[in-house]
Amino acid sequence: MRLTALSGLLLVGLMPQCAYAANLYAGHATAAAVCSHCHGIKVPSADAPFPTLAGRDVDYLKLALKQYSDKTRKSDIMNAIAGSLSDDDISNVATYYGRLKP
Amino acid sequence: MNTPINSLPKSILFSLAAVFLPFGTQASSDTPNNMHKLYEDNCASCHGSDHGGFIAPGLNSETLKGRSPTALRTIIMAGSFDTLMPPFYGRLSDDEIRGLVKHLQATPKLTNPAWTIDDIKASIKVYVKDESTLPAKPIYEIDNMDNIIGVAARGKYGRGSGSKAVFINSLTHKQIGEIATGTAAHIIDYNPANPRWAYVKNDTAEIFKVDLYSMKIVRSVKTGFNGPGLGVSRDGKYIMAGSYVPHNAVILNAETLEPLKTFELEGIDPDGKMVSSDSGMIIGTPFADIFAIALENAGQVWVVDLKEGFPVTKIENVGRHLHDAFLTHGGSKLMVASYDDSIVTAIDLKERKIIKKLDAGCVPHVGGGAAVEVNGRTLGFGTNFGDCDKMVVSVWDLDKMEVVKQIPVSGGTESPAAHANAPYVAVDIISKDRRARTIQLIDKLTLEVVKTLDVGGHAYFPEYSADGKFLYVSAGYSGDEVVVYDSSSLNRIASIAMESPAGIFSHGRVKYMTRGLSPDEFENASKMKGEK
Asked: Residue B249 is part of a domain; what is its CATH number?
C-alpha cells in the first residue's frame, strides 16, 4: 500500500477535468475515483455512516456539493473533497448519481 | 446507515445529518488498553493481531517510524482509495483516531500470543446439534452441486454485516444462500467426499462448517487470530488450518471441528537461521492421505501423514518466504511459490523432495494456480504481484519442469483462472492505478494476451464456473459487485451485488483439483490411490 502517495488525498483533486456539462462518462469516472469510496456506486456499505447518492435529485446533489465546496455548508471532509471539484465535475457527478438506480 | 430506497427524499436531511454525527462519540480515555481494544475491534483483522501485518501492512513503531501523524490520521479518516482500506470517518471519533495514531506509533510488533489446543477446543460453537435434522437434499433448485460458486465477501470494513460467504448458482447467476462470517471471509473450501459440506475461514481465523443443502452454519471453531491457511483431506475426514498469529497449525476432525493435533511452526530457514514461521498454504491432495503445509518464513514444506500421531516429513530449503501453491500430476507434485527469491519450487510429494526451482517472474503469488493441457503438454500458469520493470505471467511445462514462456502482461497479477473448456487463461491485474480495473486474457494456444476486460472497480480473483462457460470476477473495493462474463464471447452477462467481494471458489475445484485441468486428471489420481 503506497500510503505516502495517498496521504495527500484530501488536498488533491483526483478527477479528470471536463470541459462540457453533464458528461455521464466523466461523472462515472469522478464517482468511481472520488465519491464511491464512502458512498458506494449504487449503495454505501450497510455498516457505513454515509448516505446513498444513487437516485437522488440531481439539482439537490449539485446544490449540496456547491455548498460544501464554498463552505456555506460545513464538514471537514466534504469541504475538502467538494472543494477539489470543478463546477463541471459537480454537474457531471450529480447527473451520474442522479440517473443511477440504487 | 441503511437508507430505505423508497423513502429517499424524506430521509435526505436525516442521512446527511448522519455524516456529522460520528458513531463512536462516547468518551474514550486515551489509555493503551482502550486503544488496543479499538485496534483489535477495527484494524486487526487486516493489519494483524500482533501489529505485524496480514493482508494489509504492519502498523507498529517500526513500520510507522517517522510517518507524519497528520498523514496517518487522514488515511484512517478518508481511507485509501486504491486499496481495501475503508474510511473510518463517522465510525471512529476524531479523538479515537488521534489516540490510535499515537498508540500505533508507540507500539512495537507484539510477541506471538498463545492460542493452544485447549483454546481451540473451547472455541467450538455448535449451531445445529443434530445433523440428522438437516434436509437430505438441497432446499433450492440445482442440478449439480459443482455448479455452486462461493464468494468470500469481505465487507467494506473487513467486519460487520457485509462480511459473509455468498453462494451462487453458476447456471442462473442468482444467489442461493449466504452465511455471515463476522469478519471478512477469506477462503472457502469444499469437502471432496461429501458435496454438502463447505468450510469457510475468515480473517480472524474462525472456520465455519457450512451445510450447503440448507445454507446454514452447523459449527464453528476459532483456530488462531489471523491467517488464511485451510485444506481438506481427500477422504473429507480432516481439515487443517494454519495461522500467521500465532505461528501454528492444527488438524481438526472435519465433522466435529474438534482439534486433534497442533503443530508449532518453526524451522531452519535457507540462511541457516532458526525461525518461528507464519503458516502459508495448506493443501490436501487426491494423491494421498496427507496434508502439505508451507512454512512461510522457514522456507520449508511439511508433509503430514494422516495416520496415528500425524507424523511430519520436513522438506527444507524450498525458498525464501513461501506463500501459496498448486497441485499437478494427479496431485503428486506441488508447485510452491516463493516471494523473496521469485521462484516456484516443484516438489515431488511421493519422494518428498524438491524436483526443481523454476523462474517465476517477480514475487510470485500463484493464487491457487492454473494448469492446462495444450497439445499434449501440461502447462502451469503463475501470477506474480511484485512491482518490477518487466511484468510477466510465467508458463511452465509441468512434465519437463521448465519455463516455456514469460508472457508480458500490463501489471502485477494475483490469481490465474483456467478451465479445460474455456479458451483463455484469465489473470487479474492488481497494479494500484486504473489497470486494477482490468482482467487480461491469455490465449491457451498462442500464449499471448489477446484481450483486456475493463471490469470496473478493482477487478480480481477470476474464476470459471464448473462447466467452464462463465467467468466470474470480483469487482471489489468501491466496485462492490461480482461480474459474470461469457467465457467465449467475453460479453458481460450478469452482476451480483455484495460488499468488497474477494476470493471466488467454484465447487468444481474438488473435481478438477487444479483450475484448468479436466476431471480426467482427477480420475487418474483416483487410480493412483494406494500407490505411495
From this structure: 2.140.10.20
